[in-house]
Structure prediction request, 470 residues.
Amino acid sequence: MAVAEGAALKLAPLRPFCPNSTLLTLTTSSSSRASFRRLSSSSSAVLADSHPSASGSLSLGHLTRPDFPILHQEVNGSKLVYLDNAATSQKPSSVLKAVQKYYEAYNSNVHRGIHFLSAKATDEYELARKKVAEFINAAESRDIVFTRNATEAINLVAYSWGLSNLKPEDEIILTIAEHHSAIVPWQIVSEKTGAILKFVDLDGGEVPDVSKLRGMLSKKTKLVVVHHVSNVLASILPIEDIVQWAHDVQAKVLVDACQSVPHMVVDVKALDADFLVASSHKMCGPTGIGFLYGKSELLTSMPPFLGGGEMIADVFLDHSTYAEPPSRFEAGTPAIGEAIGLGAAIDYLSEIGMQKIHDYEMELANYLYESLQSVPSVRIYGPKPSRNIGRAALCSFNVEGIHPTDIATFLDQQHGVAIRSGHHCAQPLHRYLGISASARASLYFYNTKEDVDNFIQALNDTVVFFNSFK
Prediction:
């Protein structure tokens, strides 16, 4: 395949990956690198509803695509194919309108004013909290603490619960597949408290070995930090079992649900997890807000994470008393518009139905995995799907001899296909797998099998292009 007009091929700086890898990077003129244009409304309609499923009816992806304005554009001269949903999801019009309405109609601070705008903003902000609680089946809305993101939610638990409850020789069990945000805070806390971090590696199917995890649990174990769905391996862990095993030794469990809450039914009562975190931006909501779920008795026992306005009961010159949760952990003016947008996103997802979303994504997940296997010299990480083993709708992969960043660059600049490359904030896992980076295609319910087909066609073209230099 010829390089697009105006493009120049150059050798990229050497990056460690694997022996004999081709390290090439495409660069284009500034006008073509960043070029994109909105498709006309008629074109959008054609893109949205022109491909029925095998049954003759429109798939969930085709039915929901018209709700996402950003998807109907061209990038670098090609129709956008967005396959980076594990990093962040796109936002439906209803969410964009909800945020706009807040700023246009009742922008005001919450919990502080008695005037109409403040009362309206407070009602909508607290309604969003109630929507989150109902969405994950929490017992009460006060079990939900709004944070900037899931990373801050984990740090809240680490600094508030961790520093107050951990002591030397206590053990925290994690897996090597955890996101950096679930590892680094506990490394800091372990240095401060003397607690010991223990890591579970993978089994033969490239899934965190839960049998080893169970065997590592003891009376010394005070906390288990574990993801629900891996953002690299696409593996889904049996959280209910892990929680039961941990509780048998009186340990607490913190679940990173960033890759599960947006994609499946998550019921915190059924899971019985002590803490659970998720991010708005991965579930059709705005950036800048996430949430922590915590059991009421735990949140009530925890000291504040940040000090300032809103989180106090009374302030004196020599001491302060603190509000009850969740206000205790929400110092200062919160992300009001973002919370309202998250509430709108939950309305949107709930109207579709999380079970419907999950079922459709499982179909897409298998289609993506099977299609990707057809690419020459590809290596897909994580478990092979089967009747007993399910995968999330993402694939991290490498193609022999081609750096993943070169793959992602070529897909974007020559085909308008957006995927992720790098270590995906999971460097320990990549080191365990013997690689420094991988490419990742991740789907959401507004994706279609045609998106997968376009990605595979573009990937095959990419492989042919780079192999032509060998």
